[in-house]
Amino acid sequence: LTHAGRIGNVASINGQLPESMTVRAGERIRLRLINAANARTFALLFEGHTPQIIALDGQPVEPHAPAENRIVLGAAMRADVIIDMQGQPGETFRVIDTFYQEQAFRLITLNYSPQAPLREHPLDAPIRLPANPLPEPDLRTAERHAIMFSGGAMGGMQGAMFNGEYTDIRTLVQQHGVVWAINGIAHPGMHHSTPAEPLLTLQKDRSYILHLHNETVFWHPMHLHGHSFRVLSHEGQTVPHQPWRDTVLIPPREHIEVALVADNPGDWMFHCHILEHQQAGMMAVLRVA
Questions:
Q1: 3.30.450.40, 3.30.450.180, 1.10.238.10, 2.60.40.420: which CATH number matches 143-288?
Q2: pTM of the model
Q3: Which of 80, 240, 251, 286 could form a disulfide with 55 if both were Cys (CB 3.0 to 4.6 A apart)?
Q4: Could you give the 3-state DSSP secondary structure of residue 224?
């Protein structure tokens, strides 16, 4: 069931457990950070450095420093960053996961080589990437839909629609291992042979605004297949840069507003990328037709 995700005993980097990475003063590096964990969220702090985010989920953004200097990545989320190595030869700095309170975890140490700096000042070259050709949603004419995520411990869910019938929470848990729902509907899971009815049917090439309401007390990285969307607002406040994403991390009891053009016909999964949440009901299908 994995309500809050699993921290685990160790976090690997590219399948290994490196103690350190050697860098050179004055060099510029680009990292593509991919959270491949199925249930752990990371908030990466590069001690002594200020990364510049240049892309999120594969979509270029206006280069900017992350909020509180932490790069937050829920399951399946990605970030491309540029870091100018401004430490001195021989210095060391940690990269720390700070997402879980009182459980900060050192992922790796950056060791500056004793070599003289490659350059005295940061490289004077642009880091902005060209935008991808995505259709811009028309917010004036966009159709609006509310999507509610419910369930889990302390969620108060009494039951949900399951396989076309209302099912009480005790039966959902004991007989089906289901504890989550989207708009009151619990998906039967990937093993089920009957295709799910779409949660929403979207008209091709029309603009939509989706109000995503997390009514649970847990974080959920919600991932949409087949499309990217603009993240417009969080708790009614405009999100800086309004980035294009395909996965958005929704905090407990909060709501986020996203917009997209439904330009890719088909049935597309929309699910929590904590995979235990997906398997336990937090999955739906959005149809574009």
A1: 2.60.40.420
A2: 0.93
A3: 80
A4: strand
